[in-house]
Structure formats: structure tokens, C-alpha cells
Write a structure and sequence with these properties.
- The chain is an alpha+beta fold.
- The protein has two domains: 225 residues, no CATH class; 116 residues, no CATH class.
- Strands 1, 4, 5, 13, 14 and 23 form a six-stranded mixed sheet that branches. Strands 15-22-19-20-21-18 form a six-stranded antiparallel sheet, with no helix packed on it.
- A hairpin with a 2-residue loop joins strand 16 and strand 17.
- Helix 3 runs antiparallel to helix 4.
Length: 417
């Protein structure tokens, strides 16, 4: 008797082979790796966007200050008795308004070169000698305390100390603390005279938590355990020597609002991340071309003997054929190519960064680094050289370039009277 199966038994199992699984994993890993690379790129782009946004804000602030204080062009040293055309000579009428750089150069050691020329008075240095090509002015009369306020963006602070402080402080210009309290607040102060070594402020919060009041400290009196924010330090209602902190010729007291009730306070050290300087070029028409240069975390100036000094100028030794023979031209008008010479430490040259033409007080972006032999660097700049390197009244070529770090953007403000 023959029997017949009613149900067929499968001859193979359903599923994926090991090879298929491995291929799928490989394809998925390619996608995940591609996706993962987007995260650091997105972070970098976001950071750059923040920098450009802050730089744009500071550009408009600088433009508004230039409108408020046209003396930055007409009388940058704030001395009506001097010439309104500062510079090394009548062929070099370029200067910068640079409160931050002026402050740092004045505080660094040494503050003068071998010829007793102050580094703060000129933007740039050739070795251990101040460069005479571009004058520098602080415009805030050299007050270190006002440099960051005038040329910075108040973007963040470091909290040195924080504690509850409950009480009525309406109209107060100082606070007296218990003995020994000031030593724990982290304030940098000269113990001999109570002068602050770095800008410091106190912020008091109202009892309702809705408002706060910030005051720049003018004195830390360790003997009487008080913090003072009025310029009338000795309380005699007279403007005495050293009391005019902001150099405006008056006695500013900055009292707290009447009926102000405090619930807590902070001691803060402002950290100015974004700062500006103005580049001014006087042109033949009697107008001045102005650029705003915005820095992010501008490095403090180092002594000229430091090979990595941020204001070191390097010779531009670009050659060109003139009337059948090779001659050094430095920056050549309409040419995007320059060659820079250096010895020792390499200048802070990077693609996408900026360089400063000291002869013409103009800024260029570095679009490419073509070659670096260890003593010479070939660069492409944008835009191509607007004007050629000039010569001084003795016929010497002014062909120097600077590579400052931390430059975010250079904005043109056009021409001003």
C-alpha cells in the first residue's frame, strides 16, 4: 500500500546568512560614521556663528562710539594743541584707536625700547624696537580701568565670591564687612594702598529678586573692612589726586537707589572676550577710512624680546621685475601674492586668518599658504593688494606685515570726515 504525505517538510530554514548580516552592519556603520562627523562640524559652525554674531554687535557699538566721539579721527590724542594729523611723518597719516593694546603695552616689561620710545604709542614692533609706522592712541586717556569698558563687549563675568547680604542699602556708596571677610573674597588688591590690581565689581540683588545693581569697585579698604565704589574715596567731597578713575574730570559717587533692600551680593571679575580696535587711514580728500577689527580673547601683549610677540612685524620681501631688473616691492597693487621673511619662531600665519599691512594700515585675509621654507612663507591674500607698499621720506620701503592672533572679522565703516 502506497502512502502519501499530506504536508511537505521544508527543505531549508528561513533567515539571513552571516555574510548578509555582516554586509548590513557594514552599510549601517558607514551611515553612522557619516552622521557622527556632522556633530563636531555642527559644533564648530555654531561656535563660529556665535563669534560672528558677537563681532557684528561690537562693530555697531564701535560705530556708535565713533559717532559720539568724532575726536577719534579729528583729535585722537585729545589734545587740541597738537596736530590733528598724527603719524611718523606727513607721508604716514595712519593710526589706530586701541585702548586694550595701549593698556597692555603700557603695563608690560619693558614698556619702552632702547630709544626710550613707548611701545604703547605705536602699533607694531620690529624686533626690540617700536615700529614708527602706525601711531596708537588709547582715547580713554590711558586709564587701564576703562580700557575694557570702552573697547569691549560685556559678555561674561567670573564670580569670585557670593553670599547672602540682607539689609537696607539705599543711597550707599560702600559696604562695611566683619573683620577678615575681605580676605576670603578673592579680590586682587595692593595691600599697601587698597588699589585694585584688576577690574572688579560688586553686584547686589534686590530683596524681591527682580532687580540688581552693579558697581565697579574703586577701593578695598582692608584696615576698615570696606568695599568702596565711589570716586570720593576719602569722603571729603573734593576731587583729589587719583580719585578720578574714569578720567572725566568730575567726582562720580554712584550711590545705590534710595530704599534699595539687598538679599545677596556677588564679587565679580569681568571677562571681556570680544574687543575692538579702530584702524584709521587719512586720505588725500581730507576724509578718513575707518575699519573695525574685532578680536576674540585677544592675547595679552608680550615683551618685544619674546619671539612670539603678537605685534611683531615681519618684512614682506616680494620681488618684481621693474624696468628689466628684479626689485623688492613688498605689497604690489592688484597682486594677491606676497612673500614674508622670518627668523626663529614662525609667525602666527593660518589659512583664513588676517594680516596687517603696516605701511598702509590695511587688513587682508589669508586665503592660502603656498609654501613655507622655514624662513620664507608664500601667501595668497584677499582682496589683492589695494595699494603698493609706500616709501618714507628717506625713500625706504615700508614693507612690513603683522599676524595678530584672535581676529574674528574686519569691518569697514567707510569714510568719515
Amino acid at each position: 500500500m502506497n502512502s502519501q504525505r499530506l504536508f511537505a517538510v521544508p527543505t531549508h530554514r528561513k533567515g539571513s546568512t552571516l555574510t548578509e548580516v555582516l554586509v548590513a552592519l557594514m552599510i549601517m556603520s558607514i551611515g553612522l560614521v557619516s552622521l557622527a562627523t556632522l556633530f563636531p562640524l555642527a559644533t564648530l559652525r555654531a561656535a563660529k556663528a556665535v563669534q560672528v554674531t558677537a563681532a557684528t554687535d561690537l562693530r555697531y557699538i564701535a560705530d556708535a562710539q565713533l559717532t559720539m566721539y568724532p575726536q577719534m579721527i579729528t583729535d585722537p590724542d585729545l589734545n587740541p594743541a597738537t596736530s590733528h594729523f598724527p603719524g611718523f611723518n606727513q607721508l604716514s597719516l595712519n593710526w589706530v584707536i586701541d585702548p586694550i593694546g595701549y593698556r597692555d603695552a603700557a603695563l608690560m616689561t619693558p614698556a619702552q625700547d632702547a630709544n626710550q620710545v613707548a611701545y604703547a604709542d605705536y602699533y607694531g614692533q620690529e624686533g626690540a624696537v617700536a615700529s614708527p609706522w602706525v601711531r596708537r592712541y588709547s582715547f580713554n586717556r590711558g586709564s587701564p580701568a576703562l580700557a575694557a569698558d570702552f573697547a569691549g563687549l560685556p559678555d561674561t563675568v567670573n564670580i569670585l565670591f557670593e553670599k547672602p547680604l540682607v539689609g537696607a542699602l539705599g543711597g550707599a556708596t560702600e559696604i562695611v564687612f566683619p573683620n577678615g571677610s575681605l580676605n576670603s573674597m578673592g579680590i586682587s588688591v595692593d595691600e599697601k594702598n587698597g588699589k585694585l590690581l584688576s577690574p572688579t565689581r560688586i553686584t547686589l540683588f534686590s530683596a524681591d529678586g527682580r532687580t540688581s545693581q552693579s558697581r565697579d569697585l574703586t577701593l578695598v579698604d582692608l584696615s576698615k573692612n570696606r568695599l568702596v565704589w565711589t570716586e570720593d574715596i576719602n569722603g571729603n567731597d573734593a576731587l583729589d589726586a587719583g580719585e578720578d578713575v574714569n578720567l572725566n574730570g568730575g567726582l562720580d559717587r554712584h550711590p545705590l537707589p534710595a530704599n534699595f533692600m539687598s538679599t545677596s551680593f556677588r564679587i565679580e571679575s569681568p571677562e571681556t572676550r570680544y574687543t575692538w580696535l579702530l584702524t584709521v587711514r587719512r586720505v588725500n580728500s581730507g576724509l578718513a577710512e575707518v575699519d573695525v577689527v574685532v578680536f576674540f580673547r585677544r592675547p595679552l601683549l608680550t615683551p618685544p624680546t619674546d619671539p612670539k610677540s603678537d605685534e611683531q612685524l615681519y618684512p614682506v620681501i616680494t620681488m618684481d621685475t621693474i624696468q628689466g631688473k628684479q626689485e623688492m616691492v613688498g605689497f604690489k597693487q592688484t597682486s594677491p601674492f606676497i612673500q614674508v621673511q622670518y627668523t626663529g619662531a614662525r609667525p602666527a600665519v593660518r589659512k583664513g586668518g588676517f594680516l596687517f599691512d603696516a605701511g598702509n594700515a590695511r587688513w587682508y585675509r589669508i586665503t592660502n599658504i603656498l609654501a613655507d621654507t622655514g624662513s620664507k612663507i608664500d601667501l595668497l591674500i584677499d582682496p589683492p593688494a589695494i595699494v603698493s607698499s609706500p616709501r618714507d621720506d628717506k625713500g625706504n620701503l615700508i614693507n612690513y606685515a603683522m599676524f595678530p592672533r584672535g581676529v574674528v572679522e574686519v569691518f569697514s565703516l567707510g569714510t568719515r570726515p
